[in-house]
């Protein structure tokens, strides 16, 4: 485990590294929230639900509300707290609502691609929010063209030409087919959609939720005294005072209206829950597949301590996602736990470009070392993952400059070697440091004294979820939903020239 490296020690005195504040770790692909609750302030409930889900997407936020006659959508770029204020929320009156906090996967980060997506239907309209990423977007876009050719698509019902995300394509397909109700149309359409989707959508009267047959992204159902809530994570139920009922099952379609809650299956469940949700994506106070995420992370830390012990004086986390595993590492190793890094909690995605001077401070925008805690200590530093390696390299350098005698890095996920096509934006395969380098080489590259990654099977055991029920493709390269050809995948699929020609309805008004 110690890096076989002669080089060392002490910082090199430079704060300027290759760090970019935008060189972030894995980015999640959205938080979704829906509520049906006559008599309640559904816009505010949705606002607070999205607030609890902000970690899942920070590029844009939106809320759609229906008063039974029409749907009103308000969305904009930025954090939930930047997009909405009291007067905006006051104007969103109704008894059901759908909300979304976005990080872009398919489709650029633009206002037109912000969600919920809105579309007129033959009898009204729908608004849809999506967590996940589809892998047959090109086929679905072709279905829109075929619908038009078959006369199912009124020209006035085309998607705005500037919307280029997979969610807009699904919204169009749900909205067409005037001969069917939205529910009937969903039952036909959902089995044709491939990839990761936790959808929440609404028409003027009914709230709908559906989860892909693999249940890759989480989706939970909660109960209010006078209504129902569906959300990405249980933490969002807690914040609005809803009690957790159960997960929306993989392959399940739920509808809620004045007649109550109806449920039906559109596909057999074949669970492949995202393993990375346990490591990093979900909030620690969330429950996934009956497992408390915080407890799972503490257990990962215990296992890391047994597999990769260190002769050290202090265990510190990289806050906040490394914190539970650092607690577990300290507990199992007997090495004291302490806070060696202070996180600026208010660093979200900023639209203010930092000047070059500020950019060069890099990671200090997010983390600052506590010199008096660190000085002269042999540290174990626990982080959740290494993607490109730039952040950890900067972190080690920063700790050495703050006086650390040794820095032993422990990672609570296995090496990330493969990209995710189901809703997490890591990096391209070529950018993933573990794709090209051995663990020893990574250790040297980040200039740590030693490096230990949790073993994949150890991680899976810590979750208590059976291995066949988990997607772990970013670690082992086994993709549970077969991927199409590479040219039919990608964030900018609907923005590329080839599709501009092949899929005219998406690009020509
Ligand atoms: S590839 Fe990784 S991040 Fe993506 S769904 Fe599978 S486990 Fe999760």
UniProtKB/TrEMBL annotation:
Pathway: Purine metabolism; IMP biosynthesis via de novo pathway; N(1)-(5-phospho-D-ribosyl)glycinamide from 5-phospho-alpha-D-ribose 1-diphosphate: step 1/2. It comes from Nocardioides currus. One of its GO terms (molecular function) is amidophosphoribosyltransferase activity. PROSITE patterns: GATASE_TYPE_2. Its cofactor is Mg(2+); [4Fe-4S] cluster. Catalyzes the formation of phosphoribosylamine from phosphoribosylpyrophosphate (PRPP) and glutamine. Keywords: 4Fe-4S, Glutamine amidotransferase, Glycosyltransferase, Iron, Iron-sulfur, Magnesium, Metal-binding, Purine biosynthesis, Transferase. GO terms for biological process: 'de novo' IMP biosynthetic process; purine nucleobase biosynthetic process. Binds 1 Mg(2+) ion per subunit. Binds 1 [4Fe-4S] cluster per subunit. Residues 30-259 form the Glutamine amidotransferase type-2 domain. It catalyses: 5-phospho-beta-D-ribosylamine + L-glutamate + diphosphate = 5-phospho-alpha-D-ribose 1-diphosphate + L-glutamine + H2O. This is Amidophosphoribosyltransferase. Residues 1-23 are annotated as: Disordered. It comes from the Bacteria. In the C-terminal section; belongs to the purine/pyrimidine phosphoribosyltransferase family. [4Fe-4S] cluster binds at residues 274, 420, 471, 474. Mg(2+) binds at residues 321, 383-384.
């Amino acid at each position: 485990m110690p890096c076989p490296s002669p080089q060392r020690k002490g910082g090199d005195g430079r704060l300027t590294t290759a760090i970019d504040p935008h060189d972030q770790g894995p980015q999640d692909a959205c938080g979704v929230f829906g509520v049906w609750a006559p008599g309640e302030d559904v816009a505010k409930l949705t606002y607070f639900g999205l607030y609890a889900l902000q970690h899942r997407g920070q590029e844009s936020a939106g809320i759609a509300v229906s008063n039974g006659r029409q749907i009103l959508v308000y969305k904009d770029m930025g954090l939930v707290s930047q997009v909405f204020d009291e007067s905006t929320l006051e104007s969103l009156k109704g008894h059901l609502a759908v909300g979304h906090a976005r990080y872009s996967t398919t489709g650029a980060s633009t206002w037109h691609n912000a969600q919920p997506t809105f579309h007129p239907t033959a009898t009204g309209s729908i608004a849809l929010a999506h967590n996940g990423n589809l892998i047959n977007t090109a086929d679905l876009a072709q279905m829109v063209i075929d619908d038009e050719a078959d006369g199912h698509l009124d020209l006035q019902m085309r998607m705005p030409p500037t919307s280029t995300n997979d969610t807009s394509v699904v919204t169009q397909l749900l909205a067409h087919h005037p001969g069917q109700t939205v529910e009937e149309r969903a039952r036909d359409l959902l089995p044709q959609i491939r990839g990761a989707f936790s959808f929440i959508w609404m028409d003027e009267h009914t709230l709908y939720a559906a989860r892909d047959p693999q249940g890759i992204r989480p989706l939970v159902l909660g109960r209010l005294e006078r209504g129902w809530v569906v959300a990405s994570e249980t933490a969002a139920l807690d914040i609005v005072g809803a009690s957790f009922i159960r997960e929306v099952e993989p392959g399940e379609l739920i509808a809620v209206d004045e007649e109550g809650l109806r449920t039906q299956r559109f596909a057999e469940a074949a669970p492949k829950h995202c393993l990375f949700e346990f490591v990093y994506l979900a909030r620690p106070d969330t429950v996934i597949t009956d497992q408390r995420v915080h407890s799972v992370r503490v257990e990962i830390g215990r296992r890391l301590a047994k597999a990769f012990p260190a002769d050290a004086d202090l265990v510190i986390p990289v806050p906040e996602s490394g914190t539970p595993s650092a607690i577990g590492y300290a507990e199992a190793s007997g090495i004291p736990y302490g806070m060696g890094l202070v996180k600026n909690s208010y660093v979200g995605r900023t639209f203010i470009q930092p000047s070059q001077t500020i950019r060069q401070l890099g990671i200090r925008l997010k983390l600052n070392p506590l010199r008096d805690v660190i000085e002269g200590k042999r540290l174990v530093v626990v982080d959740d993952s290494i993607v490109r390696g730039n952040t950890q390299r900067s972190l080690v350098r920063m700790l050495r400059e703050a006086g650390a005698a040794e820095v032993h890095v422990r990672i609570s996920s296995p090496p990330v070697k493969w990209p995710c096509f189901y809703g997490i934006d890591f990096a391209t395969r070529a950018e993933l440091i573990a794709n090209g380098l051995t663990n020893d080489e990574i250790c040297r590259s980040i200039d740590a004294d030693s490096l230990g990654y949790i073993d994949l099977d150890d991680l899976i055991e810590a979750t208590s979820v059976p291995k066949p029920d988990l997607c772990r493709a970013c670690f082992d390269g086994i993709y549970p939903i077969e991927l199409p050809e590479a040219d039919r995948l990608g964030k900018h699929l609907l923005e590329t020239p080839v599709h501009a020609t092949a899929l005219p309805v998406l690009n020509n008004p």
